[in-house]
Each structure stands twice: as structure tokens, then as C-alpha cells.
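Entry 14: structure prediction run for Ferredoxin. Input pasted below.
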Amino acid sequence: MLGAAVTSRWHLTVERRRVMRVVVDLNRCQGYAQCAFLAPDVFAMHGEEALLYDARPDDTRRVDVLRAVAACPVRAIAVEGAGGKRAADRMGVPDGA
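Run finished. Output C-alpha cells:
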């Protein structure tokens, strides 16, 4: 049983650090790639139209991800978890920046 308890504690520690979840509406995304410029380790274009992204980036990338959310001209990116869109608004990043 000790092994299960250690695994559970490790899992909870990882989840506490990674509370941010990125969601992209790929039907809405038009491939402008502003997100890939602002957070290249989270978002990447594959070809001219396909967006690849890390749905659970490390919390250290939060500021860059929130800037990418604010910069998306079609509002295809959302962040779930602590901070989210309201944090982008508090940062003073204007819509479409």
C-alpha cells in the first residue's frame, strides 16, 4: 500500500503545479499563428493550417500562454484553471494584441 500512497502524493503534487489547461477550438482557429510567436514552446504550427499545442503546459509558461490567448484574433484559445482569461485582462493585454 505504501507504493500507492507515494504514487498518489506524487500525482497530486504534479497536478498542483499544473492547474492550467489550454483548450483550442480547432474549428475556429484560422492559423494566424500569433500564439506560436508568443508561446512557441506551447503552440506550434504544423504546415500552414494545423495547430499543435500542449494542453497542459507547465505553470511557468502562464504569462506567455495568457498573452497568446489575448492575441488570438478569432478567440480560439481558452485557458481553464486558476488565472484564465481574467488574468490576461488584469495584465492589461488589449483584445487582439
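Notes: Helices lie at 2-17, 34-38, 62-71, 84-90. Will compare against the previous run tomorrow.
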